[in-house]
Design brief:
11 helices; 4-stranded parallel beta sheet; alpha/beta
């Protein structure tokens, strides 16, 4: 039996990164991954659509045809979806604490009985604070690989230093660029050597590991 995945993401660039990660993790470039949203390909999506989709009948129906559903969201603007980034004393929450709070929000959004039944088939890909942070280990200097702030700017600066290497003159939020810059993660050895360098990326891989998923040839 072939394992199938459904992706609920903020946008198509996020899908590109997660697809590459899944290919590398399972060592299969042809892994069966289906984008569940944005349902309208003319729209960019965003965090509000992620919550909207997860609160829809379509989300529940996805489990009839998909073995696992991956929910992605960035935390850069988490206060807009009512998840604080600081504690009562004004200290920044750790990536792990922030991720747990976001996961709790999704769990409360879903029907408790539904989550009890299907929770093990839901995999959270919560990027602190953006999915670009997961790409820093590939391109940035050692002191920036674990960064969680201003990750797009850090990634763009690193890539723009050597435009001829990736044939990207200027990094932009386009799926074709993200497919190219995340491609190294589709190789298992590279993925395993880099994922632990960025905190929320490490937590996502640990979520996959906890499921003990095996892809049949």
């Amino acid at each position: 039996m072939t394992i199938t995945f459904g992706l609920v993401t903020e946008g198509r660039t996020d899908q590109a990164v997660i697809r590459a990660i899944l290919a590398g993790y399972f060592g299969d470039d042809n892994i069966r991954v289906t984008s569940l949203n944005p349902s309208d390909k003319n729209k960019l999506g965003g965090w509000s659509q992620v919550f909207q989709y997860c609160n829809s009948p379509d989300f529940k129906d996805a489990f009839e045809s998909k073995d696992y559903v991956i929910i992605h969201i960035d935390t850069d603007i988490s206060p807009q979806y009512k998840i604080a980034q600081i504690d009562q004393d004004g200290n920044s929450l750790s990536p792990n604490q922030l991720i747990e709070n976001v996961k709790d929000k999704f769990k409360h959004l879903l029907d408790p009985e539904f989550y009890q039944r299907y929770g093990e088939r839901i995999i959270f890909a919560i990027a602190v604070h953006s999915i670009e942070c997961w790409l820093l280990p590939l391109y940035c200097e050692e002191n920036e690989k674990s960064a969680i702030d201003s990750c797009f700017d850090k990634l763009a600066e690193a890539i723009n230093k050597e435009p001829e290497k990736l044939k990207i003159i200027k990094l932009d939020k386009k799926s074709k660029y993200y497919q190219k810059i995340s491609l190294p993660y589709s190789r298992n050895e590279i993925l395993l050597n880099h994922y632990s360098l960025n905190p929320s990326f490490k937590i996502f891989i640990e979520e996959l590991q906890a499921r003990n998923i095996y892809i049949n040839d």
